[in-house]
Design goal:
The protein is mainly β. It folds into 2 domains: about 5-95, RimM (Elongation Factor Tu (Ef-tu), domain 3); about 100-170, PRC-barrel domain (SH3 type barrels, Roll), CATH 2.30.30. About 10% of the residues lie in helices and about 50% in strands. It has helices spanning about 30-35, 70-75, 90-95; strands spanning about 5-15, 20-25, 40-45, 45-60, 60-65, 80-85, 110, 115-125, 130-135, 140-145, 150-155, 160. The chain has a 6-stranded antiparallel beta sheet. A hairpin with a 4-residue loop joins β11 (about 150-155) and β12. The N and C termini lie far apart (about 50 Å).
Length: about 170
């Protein structure tokens, strides 16, 4: 059975001599797109997989696809809709009961070593990053929310425990 695909953006024009493509990705799918190893584009009416070699921000988002090494090869992929597999898109994972960072406002945030930091007032969504806004020692403090820092989420007690980088609470 074929994977269900979700439209997440589109390619624009080629960029540079290496076959990169300027792309636009819908905000709500940006994190999913950055984390994806494979994307799909319709070529001759059929969705074909393309593997991401590199992704970078140079004012525009530039995508380098494996085995596309020149502007001539990349030209065939301009003005195309970009798709991800439904299973790779967080919105569909949320339906299965998975809590996402955007839903953590109101939770208490703890550091594994320091203990209680405070309540998450809001979650700021930035390109490639989520930040928890917390009132810590009477100052508005921004803490990174990333899977690599996450120790646990206790939905029942509305608690998030992170393993924060040493000294991050001293930066504010």
């Amino acid at each position: 059975m074929a994977d269900k695909l979700v439209s997440v953006g589109f390619t624009k024009k080629t960029h540079g001599a290496q076959g990169e493509l300027k792309i636009t990705v819908k905000d709500e799918y940006f994190e999913d797109f950055v984390n994806a190893d494979v994307l799909f584009m319709n070529v001759q009416g059929k969705p074909l997989p393309f593997f991401v070699e590199n992704l970078r921000d140079a004012g525009d988002i530039l995508l380098k696809i494996e085995d596309v090494d020149s502007p001539t090869e990349a030209k065939h992929l301009t003005s195309k809709e970009i798709f991800l597999r439904e299973q790779d898109v967080k919105i569909f994972k949320e339906e299965a009961g998975v809590v996402t960072f955007e839903q953590l406002a109101g939770y208490e945030i703890y550091d594994e070593k320091e203990g209680l930091i405070g309540e998450i007032l809001s979650v700021e969504v930035l390109p490639q990053q989520y930040l928890a806004v917390v009132n810590y020692q009477e100052k508005e403090t921004y803490l990174p929310l990333h899977a690599s820092l996450l120790v646990s989420i206790d939905e029942k007690n509305k608690k998030v425990t992170l393993r924060l980088p040493e000294g991050i609470l001293d930066l504010n």
